[in-house]
Amino acid sequence: MNRRNFVKALTLSASIAAIGLPVGAHAADTIKVGILHSLSGTMAISETALKNVALMTIEEINAKGGVMGKKLEPVVVDPASNWPLFAEKARQLVAQDKVAAVFGCWTSVSRKSVNPVFKELNGLLFYPVQYEGEELEKNVFYTGAAPNQQAIPAVEYLMSAEGGGAKRFVLLGTDYVYPRTTNKILRAFLKSKGVADADIMEDYTPFGHSDYQTIIANIKKFAAAGKKTAVISTINGDSNVPFYKELGNAGLKATDVPVVAFSVGEEELRGVDTKPLVGHLAAWNYFMSVKNAENTAFVAKYRDWAKKNGVPNADTVVTNDPMEATYVGIYMWKQAVEKAKSTDTDKVIAALGGQTFKAPSGFTLTMDKTNHHLHKPVYIGEVRGDGQFDVVWKTKEPIRAQPWSPFIPGNESKQGI
Amino acid sequence: MFAMKLLRRMLGVALLLALIGGPARAALDPSLLAGFAGDFQSRMNAIEAIGVAGGDDARRVLDALEAGSLGVLEDKAVIVDGDTVRDAASGEVLTQAVDAVELITVNNRVRRTLANARAALALTSSDRAERLRAAITLGDNPNETLLPVFERALAAETDEEIRGILARAAARINLASPDPLVRLRAVRALGESSDPAVKNLLEGLLQKRDGNWVEPHPEVRTAAKMAIDDIDRRIAIAESVGTVFSGLSLGSILLLAALGLAITYGVMGVINMAHGELLMVGAYATFLVQGLFRSHLPAWLDWYVAAAIPVAFLSAALVGVAMERLVLRHLYGRPLESLLATWGLSLVLIQAARVIFGPQNLELANPSWMSGGVELAAGVVLPYNRIVIIGFAVFVLVLIWLMMQKTRLGMFVRAVTQNRPMAGCVGVPTARVDTLAFAIGSGVAGLGGLALSQIANVGPAMGTGYIVDAFMVVVLGGVGQLAGAVWAALGLGIVSKFLEGWAGAVIAKILVLVFIIVFIQKRPQGIFALKGRFADS
Do B361 and A44 touch (CB under 8 A)? Predict the structure, then answer.
């Protein structure tokens, strides 16, 4: 082929590609899926691991023959912890790259910013993180917990004899939509259980707050009132490290005032010396320390993948709840595509309801037929000296999500899509 | 019903009497340990039973449970000791592998029972510190069954501090005594306390229930009122000291974050947006030193922070020199370009850290001598790490002051700051002074990073959180003035903490920023005006 012909061929193929015709064997053989997680900026600490686990899962599916005989092709973009950029990148994934599904987002604000894009372009998003509920989108599947699958059972546990019989509560959070909404639900829930307003203290700190001296002193003062006190923390991201360090040094022990956290998992505790924190709690739908065959395999697979792909500190990588939710989400999508025999959004959405998957959490999870949420088990774990959790309480079986909390007035009529 | 209660209470007393006076036996009865294989409740029962049995074996088993090395193997309680498995009851070595053992987990309720059982055993220890810890643990949640334990320990105890704790714990129980004289004595004893929980207890006596006083005797009520006043006064003092301390602590952290910037910005007028990343370099250097100590000098791990001081300084200084030589030197006198260039450098450094160390925060453990704190009063604790950091800030400050005032280099730096062309004329190598001053400023930032690593996050983005604070301090204090930076940092720290106590963290942050905006408008030169090069321009 001489140079001129080559250029011609190139131009031709480029123009064919430009008008969107499937060209060559490559495009027909693969199904593109998008991965929309921040790899830089403040959320990189949490979201990078989700990108890793998504890539690992895709590799695993490809090794077993792909989906409907086609290999999956991941398209990774970096929205850089910048909420408007999430919407732009989502649009690029769905409109330009024509991905069949997107796995991504962590903070509620990033999900809120991409929701309209998925609705407009009729795309498909799998959201893997526990969140505040009060939302139900046709184009979104929520594989993380709704408040009744995490927050409410955790508070019930604290109030039970086993959990210490707490009568006074500190609701402590970072100042944004997730903690504010969760605390609104919890306050209503506590009131329904007969806890007086005087026995609830609510406090917020800005994002990235690093000086918790005053707040810890206030908690101590509040706890001295004689009734058993517990702290419910929705502090998110980086602030947890200074919070827990201060907690340990101020001598606030879990046996006196337990702190239960909804955004602190194995990954977040990697930055903390957990010996002074033994006994503080976290509520999730999965812990790395859960013992069952699926989880052992899942943890081993991720460790191997991290080593093979040169993830920094690969020998100490951990798995956590949103990672498991990402893993489950990708498999649920795969099963739905195979059932629908198509990657068409509407057909996949119809096929997703009722899908089941044997998850690393030790239960067979079901995608609810009407509300796009998983039925999930709830675990309550206590922090160990090595940064892992001991499960001290769990539900007997997965429970159905209530994205519209019954504790917020006006929600009675909103249930399904 | 009542008989049951009484019986249970007497049983409890008997158990606890046995706890402190039980004769040591050769080996534990294995049946006592059977409960560990069951649920949390049966584990708690087992702990109590073992506590009653007493003796060194009981202590060994409970210590193992606390350490997380007690496990179950084929329905038998065992202790994992490194690579060997021992029978918990007899202590003999078993042949099974460590992997076969299922370690026993505890929850907070079991942990509390465990702490009380261990404390009751430790109350007769010969070690004063151990007895003190035990008394504090037991005194936190006194209940009736513990009264004879306290009285017995009081009779044997000679140490004043421990006696005080035990007496107050006993007095809390005696408040419910039917004898008004006992109650009066208890109330008076509790007046010595500084614990808000005690105050609440006493306030309960002064309430009326169904028209009758909870405390029927007027004299006891008067005494309770006086005791409450005493406690209130003590709490108020402790709280103000606590607030001033947290302000000082925040100020010292702001100062460490800003000192390096005060030098580089002050001397060369370079708006160094990468200053936060120099803090990060210092913190990462500390992390590496910790890693080295963990793998090579585990015995000296507690002192890794001291060893990290020169390392953090030098590594940040080296990065600073590289920045200055390669980039900034070409941009002197062009503040806007140097601002952009340093911002770019900061992004490069952040991403470099992310690529090399990963995006996760790194774990830096406080050395044991920096963990915990001094308790001023119940609820007011001054953590050791913050005390050390305040001391460290003073140390760095003195070091810089000595360098600026007493060394030849310091004199050159001051000369260049005041009048660059004149200093050049009399033979000061201004370019080299620039490089050295920037290196020192960067090195001090590295020391700031070392200090931050002990209380905050260490991650790629840690610097961005401090850059605004650092500029705030430098601008407020007056550009090029070390003394200004000191006053600004301490002032900001204390003002923020008082505002936070009064209005909450979010409002406090807003108020501080508003205050600075107003202040800079009224006095753009900062607290201290600079005389020299900048004063003219």
Answer: no
Nearest to A229 by CA among A288, A292, A165, A301: A165
Structure tokens at B80: 């994992």
Nearest to A250 among B115, B355, B373 (CB): B373
Say if residue A320 is in the same domain as residue A391: no
Is B236 near chain A, with CB under 8 Å? Answer: no
Is A1 within the bounds of a domain? no
Q: CA–CA separation, B30 vs A374, rounded Å? A: 46
For A198-207, what is each residue's pLDDT tens digit?
A: 999 999 998 7
CA distance B415 to B487: 23
Contact A30, A72 (CB under 8 A): yes
Residue A294 domain-assigned? no
Cα dihedral A385, A391, A393, A398, rounded to 10, equals 150
Q: Which residue has the tokens 């519209």?
A: A404
CATH number at residue A79: 3.40.50.2300
- ipTM value of the model? 0.77
Q: Which of A241, A270, A274 to mutate to test the interface with B (most CBs of B within 10 A)?
A: A241
Residue A242 falls within a domain, yes or no?
Answer: yes
Selected for mutation to probe chain A from B108, B205, B288, B492 (highest A CB count within 10 Å) is B108
Give contacts of A204 with chain B, Cβ < 8 Å: 504-506
Residue whose pair of structure tokens reads 């800003």 in the numeric block: B258
Q: Is B279 on the interface with A (CB under 8 A)?
A: no
Q: Is B108 on the interface with A (CB under 8 A)?
A: yes
CA distance B443 to B450: 11
Contact A376, A269 (CB under 8 A): no
A386 and A350 in one domain?
Answer: no
The answer to whether B203 contacts chain A (CB < 8 Å) is no
Give B50-91 pLDDT, tens digit per residue. 877 777 888 888 888 888 888 888 878 888 888 888 888 887
**Alpha carbon distances (Å) from A74 to A97, A101, A394:** 10, 10, 35
For residues B246 and B234, give the distance between their C-alpha atoms in angstroms, rounded to a whole number: 18
In B61-137, DSSP assigns E strands to 70-73, 76-81, 84-87, 93-94, 102-103
Beta strands at A168-174 and A200-205: parallel, antiparallel or unpaired: parallel
| Interface membership of B459 toward A (CB under 8 Å) | yes
- Mark whether A184 and A326 lie in a shared domain: no
> Chain B: residue nearest A266 by CA?
B360
pLDDT at A21: 43
| The pLDDT value given to residue B24 | 42
Q: Are residues A155 and A120 part of one domain?
A: no
- A206 chain-B contacts, CB cut-off 8 A: 505-506, 509
* Residue A388 placed within a domain: yes
Question: What is the domain count for chain A?
Answer: 2
Q: How many angstroms separate the CA atoms of A124 and A108, rounded? A: 17
- Shortest distance between the Cα of B398 and any Cα of chain A, in A, equals 25
- The DSSP bridge partners found for residue A31 are A72
Tokens at residue A392, please?
Answer: 């001290």
Q: Based on the domain organization, do A407 and A339 belong to the same domain?
A: no
Find the CB nearest A210 among B371, B373, B465.
Answer: B465
pLDDT of residue B21: 45
Q: Which domain holds residue A275?
A: 148-289+379-414
∠B87-B90-B96 over CA atoms, to 5°? 20
Round to whole Å and give the CA distance between A75 and B110: 49
